Amino acid sequence: MNSNQKKLQQLIKDQTLTLTDEELFLSSAYQKYLSSMAKAATGRYRQGLQTLMEWDASDGAGLAYTDNYKIHINAGNSITQSFPSRMLRSESLVGMNGHETAHLLFTDFTTLGLYLRSMENGSFYPEEPSFDDQYQESCEEMLEAVHERDKAVCLTLSECASHISNILEDIYIEARMCDAYPGFFKQGIELNCLRMNELMPSLQSQIDNGFSDFAIVANLLLQYCRAGTVNNLHGYTGPYLDYLEDCVPYVEESIYSDDVKDRLHASNHILGILWEYIKPMVEDTRDRLKVASEEDAKNLLNEILGDQIQGVAPLPSGKNGAMPKQAEAGKKAQSANPPLQFSPQARQNIMSGVQDVVTEEGDRIQLAKTSTILEGNNPGITYNHQYLGSGYEKSASDLFRILNSVATEKAEEQYQQEMTEELQKAANDIHYGNAHTGIHVTVNRMCSVSDDLVKAYQSVAPPLLRASKRLQKTIAPLLKEESEGGKIKNLQFGKRLDTRALHHEDGTFFIRTRLPSEEQKLAVGLLIDESGSMSSSDRITYARMTAIVLYDFCQSLQIPVTIYGHTTPDCEAGVALYSYAEFDSIDTSDRYRLMDMSARNGNRDGAALRYVAEHLSKRPENQKLLIIISDGQPADYGYIGTEAEADLRGIKKEYSKKGIILFAAAIGSDKENIKRIYQEGFLDITKLEELPKNMALLVKQYLK
């Protein structure tokens, strides 16, 4: 391991220790990790499904939602960030990913959309609620108001129904998901379930903070659905618990059913039970409608309920009850899964599995159980986990792998930044001669490579790499023989006689032992003209192809290679150098950087040539080969004609004395001028398609 590799390893360790949650969870690696989980669960029903991460740690920031096409998760949400370790925070995000994936698989968006729009238009779907007890009178009052199509009543009921149906739907789809994919999502879903209940304000706290009566009962209902218990630390015994107890039978009937209409039926009856608490909200909506539009009044009511009812996010639905195509696929996926078999078993099933995970992380706020709800024949709501296997046990290693990947990416970026600074310092220290007085040289090097460049390379490289491999086969055995040493037989002269060859009639009787050679004989530099004229006749394309072949050829044979492009900056005097491949680069992205090569502005060849020649001259190899690919003479402000030619001849002569062999490959119309400048180092490239092969053969010649 050389010093650069050791430096990078240390940078990776440092980044692993200092990497923040925001950097980790918003990284492309982590998003791909969650996306792969969602895709694995949805299969062919969700082509192109992605999980997108964002960061919003402000008060009241959302958790997660799906728009039927993508899953959006806020990694900075209060639930996730309340966990004490990064491992648990990651599990929380996996759970949210599983929750939204469950909606895509198991939620019937068409029926839910029809349900809410029917209520807005003055009718109950799938049927009107009815009671045979004390709630029948208030139910009839509610139905009468709806039949009159009172806009305030319909809007308010629709918003309340949305939250109630979401509570029931959330519990149902989470249970389905835990049953269908216990290895992927079960632990994260249950962790979030437990944590949300822990963070739910106590009943008395909600009363003290002025929560609406409807929101208080909805929160109690949500807590009960999640864990069969409510947070009643202060021992409240008032009517809220009575209303909750009357809602429980409808909840239990619907939560076990795979038919969404059963949950909508339960929601309608819960609205009838809570009508007395909904009526004050209707009057508030009526007042708002006098000064605001119907849409504004609806949004304000939804915002108020959203702030007070904890952990319930709106479900997407198409306009006019129509379901988007992606949601239709989710409905098909739902029917393709076997129905979940529920049974009202002990409520501790959901709590015990999670409590083991959080025990080592510190004490938890324990929920106070409400005897009036839990005692008697009400068993509560629980998940029936049929799975008997060990579940997915690699979540920790997954996180560490992603953490290391992100840390490596950041460390490599930092390393590349430091390398660019060193290259720029070297450029500043070079004396470029009188011809370049006042000219500034800027070294450009990408710290990270985009996916687009990687894909572009992968699309064009295969045939070029095959050409490189064919050229390597002819030289690799010679290099191997030289590095390993051995005996050279059948020599006509020598100090040692080979007795086994005395019968040779041509006098090849001698043998010599060659010791292994560890010294590297050759280093290669490639400098490519990126002036605007290189766009003509695909010259820059063939130059890029040459760079790909030459880089692979040298890398495969362990020949140190550096590749630069050069042009002039926009609207100013100077030289812009583009570092594509470096001698000491230890990442694997230089090959992708080559795809950034393009025709740009002018060309001030002398300064660029001196920089790369100086860069190459510091190498320890015995031979140093510098190849220039150009389509014409230098062309920059104050740098053209005989003065520029004299500068280039002087640079070539100067660095020839330092052991640098220079060749100029001319691919443009100014071949005679380039030949006059570089003389014996001139290569006439008539057929551009042969340029990559010819450059590799030139390197091969000096390897021998």
Topology:
Elements lengths: L2 H16 L2 H5 L2 H15 L7 E5 L9 E3 L3 E5 L3 H4 L4 H21 L2 H12 L15 H12 L3 H30 L5 H14 L3 H6 L4 H15 L11 H17 L4 H14 L1 H17 L2 H15 L16 H12 L11 H11 L12 H4 L20 H35 L11 E4 L6 H34 L1 E6 L4 E2 L12 E5 L7 E8 L9 H18 L4 E7 L7 E7 L8 H4 L11 H13 L5 E8 L10 H16 L3 E7 L4 H8 L3 E3 L6 H13 L1
Parallel strand pairs: 1-3, 4-10, 8-9, 8-11, 11-12, 12-13
Antiparallel strand pairs: 2-3, 5-7, 6-7, 9-10
Helix pairs in contact: 1-19, 3-5, 3-19, 5-8, 5-9, 5-16, 6-8, 7-13, 8-11, 8-13, 8-14, 8-15, 9-17, 11-12, 12-13, 20-21, 20-26, 21-26, 23-24
Summarize the entry for a quick read.
The chain is an alpha/beta fold and 704 residues long.
Characteristic key phrases:
alpha/beta; 704 residues; three-stranded mixed beta sheet; Rossmann fold; 3 domains; 13 strands
Would you give an account of this structure?
The strands form 3 sheets. The protein has a 7-stranded mixed β-sheet with strand order 4-10-9-8-11-12-13, sandwiched between helices. It has a 3-stranded mixed β-sheet with strand order 1-3-2. Strands 5-7-6 form a 3-stranded antiparallel β-sheet, covered by helices on one side. The model is unreliable at about 315-350 and about 355-390 (pLDDT under 50). The two termini are about 30 Å apart. The chain contains 26 helices and 13 strands. The chain has about 700 residues and is α/β, with parallel strands linked by helices. Helix 5 crosses helix 16 (about 325-335) and helix 7 (about 135-145) crosses helix 13 (about 260-275). It folds into 3 domains: about 85-395, no CATH class; about 430-485 and about 520-704, von Willebrand factor, type A domain (Rossmann fold, 3-Layer(aba) Sandwich); about 485-520, no CATH class.
